[in-house]
């Protein structure tokens, strides 16, 4: 081979080795998932990734095999409850199935959960649905600072006779059906964040059956609730956020009140201010105060002014401890068998959970509430506490035991109390 050819080949080989040596760090640092198909760093051009069909021939590569769109979780619990109350003793058997579906995407999140409580009282033997709950929550990130949210819910509940707070002359409590949906959008502007929400809810109350056989119709308590809200927050420090929020609502009843002889349609407005503190994932606390004005369309009913106080606390010092506490104010229509025009309720609750080890978990809770009814002399107060434990037999089976005490005192029903002991077994996915 002539000398000049050998020299040319040698120079070409040296240049190729140099180029390869310079390209190796760049290739190692490249992110193949970010390639758009125009450069050599796109993983579609890597050998053995797509050895047969063209990438765009089908969409199978977009979905991982054996990876469903929803993560499914379900459980079925069988529980027996013994109650000793002011109204007497009773034993109930409950079957509680529940299911949950969850999808977490790059920008979206969807969560669906549902549960039911099927009750068979020992004295009657009739099977009834004590509660049914369905919930859907969704979220979608339009961009890094804007998020859309939406949710829907449907609940059905029927209080058990003898429950503290329920009149002693009620044999079958009214069935309450509530369903609604809400949407919202939040956007961040530097240290400010703004959120706008809108909601609609429907509440329907069934008849009440008394111990003497009489039936009370509660259809005049059925109503629609339409609400809108605005929240503005300012991140004053990396830990503390101050915020203000305003609400506007409208309650529309189906029928005029038989006791008041007018419709109880009303417009609600509220204004609150507060502060939130977040310390990593260990402690989060929120406190706010404000005022609510409920003005009725009927001039004879006047208006109701209420001071609003709300607080929430969550403390998780380590993975074994979970502590929460809250205080809330609720202003709403009175509901069946209550009287008056408006129920103003202040309620507090606290809960603590401790995971002893991988097979044993303990928990305790307490609650308190007081309520007044505008337009009526009725008042209610109550409190309760309880404790429980979960023992895992294996990954899919757990034994549960709980004790609870409830005490209620009201102008209409006097003093009532109840002790409850519940044991059961839960099978889960």
Structural topology:
Blueprint: H1 3-29, E1 71-85, E2 88-104, E3 108-121, E4 128-143, E5 146-157, E6 170-172, E7 176-189, E8 192-205, E9 208-210, E10 215-216, E11 223-235, E12 240-253, E13 266-279, E14 283-296, E15 303-315, E16 321-332, E17 342-355, E18 360-374, E19 379-394, E20 397-410, E21 414-428
Antiparallel strand pairs: 1-2, 1-21, 2-3, 3-4, 4-5, 5-7, 6-9, 7-8, 8-11, 9-10, 11-12, 12-13, 13-14, 14-15, 15-16, 16-17, 17-18, 18-19, 19-20, 20-21
Percent of residues in helices comes to under 10%
Helix-strand topology string: HEEEEEEEEEEEEEEEEEEEEE
Q: Any idea what the shape is? A: globular
Overall mean pLDDT score?
84
Structural overview:
Residues 1-10, 12-38 and 49-65 have low confidence and may be disordered. With 429 residues, the protein is mostly beta strands. The strands form two sheets. The protein has an 18-stranded antiparallel barrel. The protein has a three-stranded antiparallel β-sheet with strand order 6-9-10, with no helix packed on it. A hairpin with a 3-residue loop joins strand 13 (266-279) and strand 14. It is 6% helix and 62% strand.
């Amino acid at each position: 081979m002539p000398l000049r050819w050998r020299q040319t080949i040698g120079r070409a080989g040296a240049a190729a080795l140099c180029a390869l040596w310079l390209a190796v760090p760049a290739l190692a640092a490249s992110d193949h998932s970010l390639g758009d198909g125009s450069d050599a760093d796109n993983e579609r051009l890597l050998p053995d990734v797509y050895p047969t069909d063209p990438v765009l021939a089908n969409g199978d590569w977009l979905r991982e095999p054996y990876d469903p769109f929803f993560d499914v979780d379900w459980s079925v619990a069988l529980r027996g409850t013994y109650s000793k109350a002011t109204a007497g003793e009773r034993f109930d058997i409950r079957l509680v199935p529940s299911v949950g579906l969850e999808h977490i995407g790059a920008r979206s999140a969807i969560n669906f959960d549902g549960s039911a409580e099927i009750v068979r009282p020992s004295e009657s033997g009739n099977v009834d649905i004590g509660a049914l709950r369905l919930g859907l929550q969704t979220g979608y990130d339009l961009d890094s600072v804007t998020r859309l949210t939406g949710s829907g819910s449907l609940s059905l509940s029927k209080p058990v006779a003898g429950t503290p707070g329920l009149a002693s002359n009620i044999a079958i409590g009214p069935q309450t059906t509530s369903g609604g949906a809400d949407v919202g959008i939040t956007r961040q502007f530097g240290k400010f964040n703004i959120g706008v929400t809108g909601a609609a809810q429907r509440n329907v109350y069934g008849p009440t059956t008394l111990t003497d056989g009489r039936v009370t119709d509660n259809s005049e308590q059925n109503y629609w609730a339409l609400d809108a809200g605005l929240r503005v927050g300012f991140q004053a420090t990396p830990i503390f956020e101050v915020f203000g929020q305003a609400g506007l609502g409208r309650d529309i009843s189906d029928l005029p009140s038989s006791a008041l002889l007018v419709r109880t349609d009303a417009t609600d407005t509220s204004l609150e201010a507060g502060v939130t503190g977040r310390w990593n994932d260990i402690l989060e606390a929120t406190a706010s105060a404000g005022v609510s004005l409920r003005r009725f369309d009927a001039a004879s009913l006047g208006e109701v002014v209420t001071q609003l106080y709300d607080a929430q606390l969550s403390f998780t010092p380590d993975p074994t401890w979970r502590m929460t506490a809250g205080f809330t104010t609720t202003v709403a229509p009175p509901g069946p068998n209550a009287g008056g025009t408006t129920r103003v309720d202040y309620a507090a609750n606290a809960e603590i959970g401790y995971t002893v080890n991988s097979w044993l978990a303990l928990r305790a809770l307490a609650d308190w509430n007081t309520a007044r009814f505008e337009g009526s002399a009725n008042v209610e107060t109550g409190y309760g506490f309880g404790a429980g434990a979960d023992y895992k037999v294996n990954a899919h089976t757990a034994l549960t035991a709980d004790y609870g005490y409830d005490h209620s005192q009201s102008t209409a029903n006097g003093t009532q109390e109840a002790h409850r002991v519940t044991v059961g077994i839960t099978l889960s996915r």
